[in-house]
Automatic annotation (TrEMBL):
Modified residues (4-aspartylphosphate): 700
Organism from which the protein derives: Solidesulfovibrio magneticus str. Maddingley MBC34
Residues recorded with modification Phosphohistidine: 853
Gene Ontology MF term list: ATP binding; phosphorelay sensor kinase activity
Pfam families listed in its UniProt record: CHASE4, HATPase_c, HisKA, Response_reg
Keywords assigned: ATP-binding, Coiled coil, Kinase, Membrane, Nucleotide-binding, Phosphoprotein, Transferase, Transmembrane, Transmembrane helix, Two-component regulatory system
Name recorded for this polypeptide: Sensory/regulatory protein RpfC
Residues of the Response regulatory domain: 651-770
Coiled-coil stretches noted in the UniProt entry, renumbered to this chain: 364-398
Amino acid sequence: MAVSIRKFTLIWICLGSAVLLACYIMLNSLLLTETFSSFAYDTLANNTVRVANFLNEEVQKLDDIIVDWAVWDDSYQFMQKKKPDFVRSNLNDRTLSSLDLAFIAFVDNESRVVWSASRQADGSFAQQLDEAVRELIIHQTKMLLPDDQEGRIRGIAKLQDTFIVIASCPISDSEGTASKLGTLVMGRDLTEAIIKKIEEKTRLRFSLADHFDSAPLGRLVRTEHLQTASSDLAIHIYDTNETTLSGHVKLKDITGAEQIDLIVSGDKEILKLGQSASLKSSLILISGGIALIGCILFLIERRVLRRILSIKSQITEINKTINVFGAKKEVTISGDDEISELARYISLYISQITNYKLNLENLVKERTRRLQEKNVENEKIRQKLEEAKVVAEQANKTKTDFLAKVTHEIRTPMNAIKGMNDYLLSTAVTDDQRDCLIAVKESSDHLLTIVNDLLDLSKIEAGKIALESIDFNLRSVIESTTRLMLPLANKKNLELVTHLDDSADVVVRGDPARLRQILLNLTNNALKFTKLGGIAVTAAAARDAAAGGYEATITVSDTGVGIEQARLDTIFEPFTQGDDSTSRKFGGTGLGLSVCRQLVGLMHGTITVESTPGQGSSFTVRLPLAHGDYNNIYAKPDAASPQAAPLDRLMLLVVDDNPMNLRVAQKVFSLLNQEPILAQGAQEALAFLKTALFDMVFLDIEMPEINGIELCRMIRDGVTTPLNKDVHITAMTAYSLDTIRDECLASGMDDFITKPLDPQTLYERILLLHQNMTGLCRYEHHAAGQQGADTPPDAQGNCRTLNSELALLKLGGDSELYREVCEGYLEKYNTERIDISLVQARPEAEKLGFEIHSLKGIAQQLGAEKLCAVATSMEKTLKNHEPCEDAAFARLLDAARETEQAVKDHLARTRPKAD
């Protein structure tokens, strides 16, 4: 919110003056109040000391009297019993009354009272001593101690309800040379008359009280220490009420203890005078401050604000008429001070601004014209850029399509070459033939490597490579990758060694496939350019506390030809090699290192090279890797090879429109102990899928009429092929671009492999499926409650008790072999034997799991789908470390009985007739 200068000045002057006045008034009031308060308190303290001094004078008077009597020769002779008429002559009632004594006592050195007298209530004296007085002078004070020859005790004491002045003096002769014969003790009441007399002399009111009887005096406001002739006194000043102050001091009694409270009263007239003076001075200051503020505001308004507002109004008027020819364009203010000078400067600036405005308008018109011309030119350039962009996008699309077509055309014949070559290598051939086949294999592998490098580089540059994030053991990946290169190293008589630090034996999370690709490229390069010596692979993993994972360092060193220093900066560029003759000598495209650098960059790592020509090179890769989970590694089965662990036969369907590709697929699958059903085209595949239940389907993508993607959608729809709606479908194509892969997976396919078919890749895919599937029983959730034998599945694909047709199909139609399987089942796995085995194995989960797994295996071979489904469900329960319920065992036995009966029925129906 905007505030005018007038308001701002008024507010801040008033506020500042008010704060200043308030501070001054508070300080003035504080000083006046403090001064008057101190004066009042000091006066009361001095008055308290005056009263204490007057009380001491009363004590001193009695002390003067007792000295005259104690050092009198007659008193001395009386104590010697030499003056028997001493009492009658000198201590009669008249004498005692004139001395105004309350009591008198002559006490010998053995504390025996020789003679005493006490005032009675009627004013007469009796020759006796009150017990309270006797107790005081004999037991509570030191006035009668025999060793106190010169001591004299005097002071005030509280006896019953009254205060009394007491003095004592040793009895001796007038010369003071005789020995002490006793002590003379006198007491005088501190009567109201004496107190009133002291009040009249001091013009003060006071009172005495016993320390234990004193009532609270009010709020303590000050404590002062004053020195008197006899002692230092601590005087406490109390604010008793609205009109009275009280001074309090503790006096010592005859015993030397501070047990007597002297309380002196004073009024608050001085304090009231101070408050009145403070109030009057504050009013005077406020009045003067208001008058001063008014004068200041008047002067500021007249000399400053009014003139500034005049400048403002003139500038506003000039602004309204700035474009009017001949209108006033200057500010005029009377006077000769800073404000009038400001007005002159403003007038000067207005004149300059007017000129600038005219020049600026002309300049804007000129630049607007130029901008319009530039916009027209830019629009033409934009149109050309749009056309160039369309051309570039079309060229890029053409390049991508061309790359896809080229790789497809290369991979299609390579599929036949590699497949048939691998099959021939598995047969009995001569050594010369084997050498030729190996040469063919190496050449085809080299060609595929070039194709893969081109595809990888293209996908990286297009940003279409997605890294996986899975758990793996770093040491295992490096060792397995190095082992792959051992045959090539042995062939070249080179030593390939690994030096893996213990720290590399860790489980990390990342993309092991891309890491393996990097290592293969680096190791392959090292082997390619090394003739003598060897290659060393070293690795270590250091904890990265900041990132919460590891930093893996992998180095591949060789003793090869090395790289010139000038080439090190460009060695990772595409199509770049150590020198111009490298490609002719060693072959290759120069893409491997470029792919390595791109992959390492995607993993947020670095790759560096050190090399000396003629001595070798060393490539170092540093990768940040996250922590992995050991359970995800060691829970998985170890990888195997087709030779190490042959697969059980599954129901496989291979679909391709190319007869050569089908023959190659049949040969490659035969290496894996598999006999797939071959379908040439989609229509033939649909015929098979309608009548038989398959475990896995391999689809070619490029087929006439109905391609692989359309066929997959028809299968997944379930209308045409209800038996195989959920079958595992794997795309099998020579295309390897991610766009094709994504399209296949989006259509409903489960996996994607590229041609040429690799036996090891097929083995891993089938092994993985074999471990995760339930064999013939893929509908275990429909198993419970199914009845009957040899009943066909319904439209939803429910399990059958015995699917003998499919089992025969898997056995190649060998009915005799299937009869042997059925008879073996009845002999070993009849219901009674199953029941006994389960009862014996049930207490031990591991043994029970083995029995159920064995039963599931024979059920798969037999085609007992319902029994397989129940066994699979129980096996999953046991793998989750959960107990199987009684109902599950009951379902298993029911399925076993139904299966047994169905097998018997099948054997009865198919028993061969006697000739």
